[in-house]
């Protein structure tokens, strides 16, 4: 009898295991991810609930005490240990306090390229309790002034490399009472002081605690500009809690304290600064920093600096795959890649060419209140609809009318969930666990990102502006951006803001900016349909010069289409659908077409030869 019962129990357990594998095949992975993410969130909140609070700065300082001689930054031929950066940031903090008179809570903008100065400046400002505004080093003119105003920055710390951009707006800055300093030994600009001598002369003793006495989990730590870098930057608010949570992403993905993390991404973006450098500060790892990405030198750098972890955006991986094949493509120490925007076809090619690297794709917006991590390694996915995590960060994919640029609602006025396999707009519920802090100095744009009455009257969700799809196994895939934004060269380009800039050109009557697909390229490439003023002609050289001066390179349209009249809707909205579908093919389009020729520094007439060269990747966009 006992034998029969034992056999029955064993059979039942076997049946349950079989059912689990069939009905819940990713149960353990889902549970493991939930515990890892939940543990990270609990650790961050526990640190920030202490008195005094333990922020990312204090975590870094603890690493500096425990491992003072471990390299924190490797840059070109320079090595900066944890102790070096701790001492240099203390000297800078004292100089900033004495020469600038900084007080806790004052926002300071940094206008710097990728270099070690960026890191110790960030930590110096944190030691003074001053939020840092990370200016995009590509912004110029009015966009630069707008960025400073958005974050209410009263000081700018700049590099002499960006002298021209700074001098262009210096009279406006001086008029507005914004003080500018160079982080260099000498100043090339009259009236702008060079701070490096004062920094080098300052004491490296730890600063008094009173500077950070008022810091809490919800204190503003950093402003990072998003989307509006094409013309009107939006300053996303990063609190101390969010900063620490994002910096924990590396640990969740498997980065260890012994790793060398290679980042070529710009430090004015959240991926490079918060995940790359911040992740190293959080875990005690080494950051290998490069001023700019170079496909030809990428793997040589990885070998030279003993890199074990790389950061990427989708375009970066495609560039690596497009380089000529080498015999040593597999000869490197990289075991892990962390990033976002990697297309499935590039993903497969990358692994085949460069070896079995563990790729951790994630999805998230700088200003967003939650995201996804692909912890299973499913090629092409950005993550999973983890049932455990969804209880912590509720999200939905809802039906979206792309033509009308708005969610589809039912007879009750509520949004409609999409079914598995259908594309929908990602929205994430705004709760205590997933707050949305919005944009500094722009309540209208903050409100525009909040979608209300989604599943019930009175609820509020963060509108990601992204279309995603969930398959029947609950894997989530990025599809496209909605509305007036597309992505090119790893940057978000807001078409309405580019249009506002181009509308200032004297021969343009109307302009409609949109993104078009280019074979072999990630994202969409900028194109502008233009209606000329009566009696005026398109001036290719002048238009090139204007876009060069007013727009970042990734936002300047690569193609121009001259139209007699613009297609509009009944509510006078410009139509983009047909323009996007027709693209830049001169055999289809009868309107005059122009191509941005970087060598000739002009927009030149498009022809079939240029079109063929672009399709065959013989012309680099």
TrEMBL record:
UniProt subcellular location: Cell membrane
SUPFAM superfamilies named among the record's database cross-references: Acetyl-CoA synthetase-like
Membrane topology: Multi-pass membrane protein
Reactions catalysed, as given in the entry: tetracosanoate + ATP + CoA = tetracosanoyl-CoA + AMP + diphosphate; a very long-chain fatty acid + ATP + CoA = a very long-chain fatty acyl-CoA + AMP + diphosphate; a long-chain fatty acid + ATP + CoA = a long-chain fatty acyl-CoA + AMP + diphosphate
GO MF terms, alphabetically ordered: long-chain fatty acid transmembrane transporter activity; long-chain fatty acid-CoA ligase activity; nucleotide binding
Domain of life: Eukaryota
Enzyme class, broadest EC rank: ligase
Domain AMP-binding enzyme C-terminal: 497-573
Family annotation (InterPro entries): AMP-bd_C, AMP-bd_C_sf, AMP-binding_CS, AMP-dep_synth/lig_dom, ANL_N_sf
BP GO terms, sorted: bile acid metabolic process; long-chain fatty acid import into cell
Cellular component terms per the entry's GO annotation: endoplasmic reticulum membrane; plasma membrane
Family to which the UniProt record says this protein belongs: Belongs to the ATP-dependent AMP-binding enzyme family.
NCBIfam families per the UniProt record, alphabetical: PRK08279.1
Name of protein: long-chain-fatty-acid--CoA ligase
Organism: Anas zonorhyncha
Lineage: Eukaryota, Metazoa, Chordata, Craniata, Vertebrata
